[in-house]
């Protein structure tokens, strides 16, 4: 039975807590990326699309309080719809954060990528979306968040192809301001636990 389609409105929900972070607060134990269900409405057109929740948990570096944010503020790329979770890494590739070249490095600390599941945060530009996702896959990321390089009120549906014999890799596009907010946290060494989940299947 086909999933119902809805006209979607993105929303933001912020919750601030004082308790400590545990892995059970943000992702199923041992999960990297779940099996991707078939979405019959992901037909490569802009008529149908799937929105994403970008859920993050981190300790505010100023107040020391635990912050949880659940935001329906992303749009999945074609053929890359599904759950992913891990520590957020603002990727440095070459001289920028575009994710257009290998090897990937973290923008904070020594530059070493985590040995635990992680989600690549990359900036739009420099190459097409497919190259960014392919490089994230090659670097063993569990998911990809691409943020816009320009101010826009619209979210694009990234044109992507799911290549044969590959593990699923969720890929989401989000706003410039949101990406820069997340990048600032990751760049200063804040540990941002991130979970990307399916929100709604939508029609224009």
How would you describe what is shown here?
The chain is mainly β and 204 residues long. The protein has a domain at 66-108 and 117-203: Glucose Oxidase, domain 1 (3-Layer(bba) Sandwich), CATH 3.50.30.30. The protein is built from two helices and nine strands; from the N terminus they run ββββββαββαβ. It has a seven-stranded mixed beta barrel with strand order 2-3-8-7-6-4-9. It starts with 11 loop residues before the first strand and ends with a strand. Mean pLDDT is 84; it is low at 11-38.
Give the SSE order as H and E letters: EEEEEEHEEHE
| Poorly predicted runs of 5 or more residues | 11-38
CATH class of one domain: Alpha Beta
Write down the overall mean pLDDT. Answer: 84
Largest sheet: 7 strands, mixed, barrel
State the CATH topology of one domain: Glucose Oxidase, domain 1
Tally of extended strands? 9
Structure annotation, total helices = 2
Tell me the distance between the termini: 21 Å
Give me the secondary-structure topology.
Elements: E1 12-17, E2 48-59, E3 66-76, E4 84-92, E5 105-106, E6 118-123, H1 129-138, E7 143-147, E8 170-174, H2 176-187, E9 193-203
Parallel strand pairs: 4-6, 6-7, 7-8
Antiparallel strand pairs: 1-3, 2-3, 2-9, 3-8, 4-5, 4-9
Signal peptide: 1-20
Keywords: Signal
Protein name: PA domain-containing protein
């Amino acid at each position: 039975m086909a999933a119902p389609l809805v006209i979607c409105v993105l929303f933001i929900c912020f919750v601030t807590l004082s308790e400590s972070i545990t892995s059970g607060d943000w992702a199923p134990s041992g999960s990297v990326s779940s099996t991707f269900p078939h979405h019959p409405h992901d037909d490569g057109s802009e008529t149908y699309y799937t929105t994403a929740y970008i859920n993050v948990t981190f300790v505010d570096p100023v107040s020391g309080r635990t912050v949880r944010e659940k935001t329906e503020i992303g749009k999945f790329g074609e053929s890359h719809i599904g759950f992913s979770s891990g520590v957020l890494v603002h990727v440095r590739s070459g001289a920028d954060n575009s994710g257009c070249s290998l090897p990937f490095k973290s923008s904070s600390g020594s530059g070493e990528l985590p040995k635990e599941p992680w989600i690549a945060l990359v900036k739009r530009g420099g190459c097409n979306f497919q190259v960014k996702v392919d490089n994230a896959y090659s670097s063993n990321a569990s998911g990809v968040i691409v943020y816009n390089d320009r101010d826009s009120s619209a979210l694009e549906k990234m044109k992507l192809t799911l290549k044969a014999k590959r593990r699923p890799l969720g890929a989401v596009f989000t706003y410039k301001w949101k990406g820069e907010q997340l990048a600032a946290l990751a760049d200063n060494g804040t540990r941002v636990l991130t979970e990307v989940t399916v929100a709604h299947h939508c029609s224009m």
